[in-house]
Predict the structure.
Amino acid sequence: KWSYGLGLAHINFLGLNQQLYFGGAFVGEKWFAISLNNPWIYGDHISFESILYNGFFDNPFYDYRYNATYFLVKSGFYKGLNNKFGLGLSYFKNKKHTLSESLPNNEKEIYRYISFEFDYQYDTRDVYNDPLKGVLFEINTKYSKSLIKDNSDINQFSLSFEKFSTLNFKYLHEPVLTYGFFGLFKFPKFSQLPIHEYEYLGGEKFVRGYSSFPDEYPNNFNKNIEASNIIYNFVEIQSTIIKKKDYGKIEFGIDGLLFVNSGIGSKEIKELSLNHILVGYGFGFKFFITGPPPISIIFGFNPYGQKFTHLEN
């Protein structure tokens, strides 16, 4: 369903490139959030970030409504120009307000975690929102300690790699070839994870050209879209349609893109197999507007004859 609200972002708070945001939604899914990001408070790009949000949401896959509270403080630093390290401490609470018989037997009414997180990035991109060349490599580890005795602790490990290369093709304006790889692994096993830790391989987050909803899977489909372990990769060509231009406090531009993506999902690491691979392909448009990250409309297709429209930011 649609939600409506209001948000305000100051992208140069105090004139020091600090980003201040607060906002919320009051129709549909009700929530509020406030965040402050200072990319350089001391020394060699020592940064500080804080986020607080609270909201009431409907789970799109299982029949229940829940209240989520999240608070994060994070700091990081650079080593040279390309190596960035980050450390985060967060609190998360998930409390269900409506329950149904469709929930897994192990699902609890309330979860509380305190989490410790470590990030490492190796980044040689020439620009951030729309790279023309360079490499981005990232490793993330996260340990979530349950504050409720009967609930399991959760370990998560992910790594990603993206390479951007400018092509020399006279029929396209500034074409860029991108290859990306992403791996995500969670412990304990899937049957012990709460629903809010489930991952969905199909849809705008990973393999475009598929849906995350079981009712929309192809006929006789035996792949793992709902999973806790994911291996995903993509190849994409992006080219300028309308060159980005400053129209007086508003910058606007449009790029077109073609892509092929694939992925494997599993509920146990030992079950990762090429027999479960999903392949999707399609095209889309990326809109560059001052302030937020680029917003994309993607039209994805799969070998089963299905097509889906995905919105991304």
